[in-house]
Specification:
The chain has 365 residues and is α/β, with parallel strands linked by helices. The chain folds into 2 domains: 222 residues, no CATH class; 94 residues, Transcription Regulator spoIIAA (2-Layer Sandwich), CATH 3.30.750. The protein has 15 helices and 12 strands.
Length: 365
């Protein structure tokens, strides 16, 4: 799957619409190909600043969609207009509520998590009213540790259910940790953390009206439905303001002052030797990754060994190139190789820090 991503305060966000996300899920099921979907919202973004394991779970996802309107607003400030907000609950509703395309069958979902009784109620409602989906099993694990919720018998039940889609409905950090701990043990193609979806599907919590979702005021409705959430929203709001003033706004200002002309293209120099692949970038990398750079990255990924990117002569680093490097680092790490950034000026280090990613790369200290 070819991804177009940008970096937002240390997280990769895919530039996709709801339609494209639905198509990606259906294609993964059709091809029996692993697709780990993360749905970052503002709470994800804030928690990931302090929880590196949580952050790595998003980085190592196969698809990371902007679930929260604040992330959409931030992307627009960076000059990256996302097509739309792609919520986990909206994605699930689209998959459940629409008949499968010709040649496909209804998606078989297994529900893991939720409060007592919610998964069963959600499964029954899905089977009674959903042309695009069938619930083939559910499990309510309670409040144990990730290890307690990861027994071999549970993994067997999930796999033997024949599920195409595993909906994990735990708290955000625990759900991502559970998926990271167990995804290699499961054969289910699509795995997604969708904490609130079980309650919506069970009917125990009502989802906000569409106009509130589109205006970014869904949090008001959520507090009305679940009053204890106000503490989380208050805490996340304060932390978001701090990140905005220290990282986001300085970066936005720099981008507006230094954005290159649309015709500006870098010179890309590629070589491969016994130490691995080497890519040197001379000039700016615009917001759309140049074809020459894309081809060099593909050549590096096709060969064994580490990848070193020389940024000595880089003059512009935008959020799309930052996102590309973040996902590239993850792909190389998965196969046991390293991405090294060398030739960093004080300005480039500052740009990486504003993106929240300098600590991810060897040689970028």
């Amino acid at each position: 799957m070819n991804r177009k991503v940008f970096c937002l305060l240390g997280l990769p966000i895919d530039i996709v619409s709801m339609r494209e996300t639905v198509d990606a899920v259906r294609a993964a099921i059709r091809e029996q190909r692993r697709l780990f979907v993360s749905t970052p919202n503002l709470n994800f973004l804030i928690a990931c600043q302090a929880d590196e394991a949580f952050r790595r779970s998003v980085i190592e996802s196969d698809l990371s969609v902007a679930d929260g309107m604040p992330l959409v607003w931030m992307s627009r400030m960076l000059g990256i207009p996302l097509p739309e907000r792609v919520t986990g609950s909206g994605l699930f509703e689209s998959l459940r509520g629409n008949p499968p395309p010709p040649g496909d069958t209804p998606i078989r979902v297994f529900i893991f998590g939720g409060p007592p009784g919610a998964a069963q109620a959600a499964g029954e409602r899905i089977n009674a009213h959903s042309p695009g989906m069938r619930c083939v099993g559910y499990e309510t694990p309670g409040f144990g540790s990730v290890a307690d919720m990861s027994g071999d018998d549970l993994m067997q039940r999930i796999d033997q259910s024949g599920a195409d889609f595993l909906l994990v409905a735990l708290s955000a950090q625990k759900a991502q940790a559970w998926i990271m701990h167990n995804r290699a043990r499961l054969t289910v193609p699509v795995i997604c953390n969708m904490g609130a979806v079980v309650n919506f599907e069970a009917g125990t919590v009502r989802r906000a009206p569409l106009w509130l979702q589109r205006t970014g005021l869904e949090w008001v409705w959520r507090i009305r439905e679940e009053p204890m959430l106000w503490r989380r929203y208050w805490r996340d709001g304060k932390a978001c303001l701090r990140l905005a003033f220290l990282q986001l706004l300085p970066y936005v200002l720099w981008l507006r002052l230094h954005r290159p002309a649309p015709s500006a293209q870098p010179v890309i120099q590629y070589r491969h030797d016994a130490q691995g692949s080497h890519v040197a970038i001379v000039g700016p990398v615009p917001d759309s990754i140049p074809q020459a750079l894309r081809e060099s990255i593909d050549r590096a990924l096709a060969r064994e060994g580490d990848l070193t990117i020389d940024l000595t002569a880089l003059t512009y680093l935008g959020p799309c190139f930052a996102g590309e490097m973040l996902t590239l680092e993850s792909r190389l790490k998965a196969r046991g190789d390293t991405l090294r950034l060398v030739g960093l000026s004080a300005r480039t280090r500052r740009l990486l820090d504003w993106n929240g990613i300098r600590k991810d790369f060897s040689g970028a200290a």
